[in-house]
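> call design_seq(struct)
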């Protein structure tokens, strides 16, 4: 962003993507936990792939929605806007596991009762 105050639509777009990415990350973490022993690297790779796939899906959905509504492909400026929103999410993604790498190995694992 160039120091300009974001408009309401831009803020809504960013919020929408935060919600998508948050729910995707939580779903992946819950599924990984339900499958028992998963290595830290495997879990992180799975989470990163899921978040990137979500961002790609949101980008494609925005482009297709624009094409459907306006009956034309988005302009370069419009594509840059969609990319900036998606890129901002990618650049600021804070994965729920980002603090787990500082914990001693195995300390974050819980054994079922």
């Amino acid at each position: 962003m160039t120091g300009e105050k974001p408009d309401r639509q831009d803020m809504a777009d960013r919020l929408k993507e935060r919600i998508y990415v948050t729910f995707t990350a939580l779903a992946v973490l819950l599924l990984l936990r339900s499958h028992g022993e998963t290595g830290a690297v495997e879990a992180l790779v799975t989470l990163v792939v899921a978040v990137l796939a979500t961002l790609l899906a949101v980008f494609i959905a925005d482009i297709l929605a624009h094409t459907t509504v306006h009956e034309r492909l988005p302009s370069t400026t419009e594509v840059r806007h969609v990319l900036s929103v998606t890129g901002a999410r990618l650049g600021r993604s804070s994965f729920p596991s980002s603090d787990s790498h500082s914990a001693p190995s195995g300390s974050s694992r819980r054994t079922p009762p």
